[in-house]
Design a protein that fits this description.
Length: about 150
């Protein structure tokens, strides 16, 4: 599985983000491209420990059993539910959100595995830095495919 801590995959993701534009249309889902970028940026905040959403009861009950879907080789399903605090519905500025996400990805990659949060994922629970690295790549790849890049 590809891992965002490998610079090759970081560079690939950053190049794909550059291929987005304000008119990029989703192939599924309700977010526009600017909202998707803000959503991915908010998810980066969780992985970096800047945002600490609480665990929901469903995650506590089944998250550890579902955890491999976050970092295995199978693509994420379309229209999967998301963490409520990072569900973006307000209007966002494309350029600002694109730059913000790119900077967070670069920082996350440069900080390396040791800087991953130790706080549990709100649904999946405790993750190793390797699982975070694979999951971050998989999450970004999912949303970039959503917008055709």
């Amino acid at each position: 599985m590809d891992n965002i801590f490998d610079i090759t995959y970081t560079d690939e993701i950053l190049a794909r983000i550059e291929n987005l534009n304000i008119n990029s249309e989703p192939q599924w889902g309700k977010m526009d491209v600017s909202q998707m970028l803000a959503h991915c940026s908010s998810f980066q905040d969780i992985a970096m420990g800047y945002s600490l959403p609480p665990r929901g009861w469903l995650g506590i009950l089944v998250g550890r059993f579902a955890k491999p879907i976050f970092y295995n080789d199978k693509p994420l399903v379309h229209n999967m539910s998301t963490i409520p605090s990072i569900l973006i519905t307000s209007k966002k500025d494309f350029e600002i959100e694109r730059d913000k996400l790119k900077q967070k990805i670069i920082t996350f990659q440069k900080n390396g595995p040791d800087a991953c949060t130790r706080h549990p994922h709100p649904f999946f629970g405790s993750l190793t830095s390797e699982q975070w690295g694979k999951g971050i790549y998989k999450h970004l790849d999912h949303h970039l495919k959503q917008f055709g890049v």
